């Protein structure tokens, strides 16, 4: 779904007023979220009586703030009008267009009977942004948008929920730089609404309310600390400690992950630099997500952070789960090679939980396999898990990789791993994830 069409030049007369389809709503100058919700509720009431299904499309102009700041608010307004006009031109009779926020539009498409119809409509809407916007006296502007779609009654039961889902999908499109995304359900903890949860998470990130803890990785041959893994923590004022297993998927879904990764990399390297200066050079492992790999400038972010904290690339190891790494293998190989060329280490996390193609594994420029902790934990009571762990260790070694076992909870697990020739171990038996100051006590 990536935008590949090169924009064509087209002079634009912003104020032209060609004949409009009667029931396509005119864009009001002021955003009208309430008007949109009223119309949506009326349509949903109708649909409850019949078999109507509909799609709600949320469209957010990318970098609109920059347009306002660099070209002025007047130009910003003209851009909005131009976008509205293009959108109107792309709609069918019976579709409804609203402006609901500064740079946010909503299109309600009734009579969408199938996901494929919504995708077709999304392509048409996306094509509205293919042509460069030319305003008299201004530089031509490549105005792009992020588009999210939600379907009723597939995932949402009411208007507010439908709008929220389309908004989540829109943020997802923004973060993955795709033309559009269809909403897919994700699970969020407890009974907080996903919308509120995402809003609070975003706030926590910008208020610097997240923190990092560190879990040491021990070399099994001499029990020395070889490195540490940085793990993110969010202590919520009302709900207490929220596990990254709960908030990372939401962060990925809404695009907040980019800020979390930047926070984790920079703060982990800041600590690592300090330990290095104090004579304890440790390899710092940081978890990254599949979404980070979609950011074209991710390697530059890493380079900048290494320069800022004056850390050697070889002191940083990036962990990517097996499932994330195998998602878009051809694309990932390219970006992983760029990271590897910088000199940072790459590790496949939770290995064994996904379905690696050995062919791709061979091509991935990785340095480490981390065995999925469930297998290591179950090893104590299951011969088949012992065999599995041994297989992963041998596989890693055959590919020339370092192998780390996580989830080491007992002395027996440690003994087994030593016998099996595993290189490094991490787990409660050695140390749980702890604060930086506490970790420093282990150095002395
Ligand atoms: P992971 O990268 O596989 O991290 C290992 C997890 O195992 C951590 O869970 C750690 O606390 C836990 N663990 C350590 N020793 C033991 C043990 O002996 N037994 C058991 N049962 N568990 C052990 P945590 O901190 O809850 O993190 C969960 C996952 O969230 C991580 O799994 C990682 O995938 C993700 N995550 C954490 N921090 C970040 C982050 O900054 N960025 C991203 N993208 N993901 C993160
Ligand atoms: Mg990890
Ligand atoms: Mg893991």
Describe the structure.
The chain is of the alpha/beta class. It is built from 17 helices and 14 strands. Bound molecules: ligand C2E and magnesium ion (2 copies). Ligand C2E binds at residues 215, 231-232, 243-245, 248, 260, 264, 287-289, 319, 349-350, 373, 377, 406-409, 427-428, 433.
Q: Report the major sheet.
A: 8 strands, mixed, barrel
Bulk shape:
elongated
Number of domains: 2
Question: CATH superfamily of the largest domain, please?
Answer: EAL domain
Q: Class by helix and strand content? A: alpha/beta
Which CATH architecture of the largest domain would you pick? Alpha-Beta Barrel
CATH topology of the largest domain: TIM Barrel
Number of strands: 14
Bound ligands, named by name, code or SMILES = ligand C2E, magnesium ion
End-to-end distance: 53 Å
Low-confidence stretches: 1-28
Radius of gyration: 26 Å
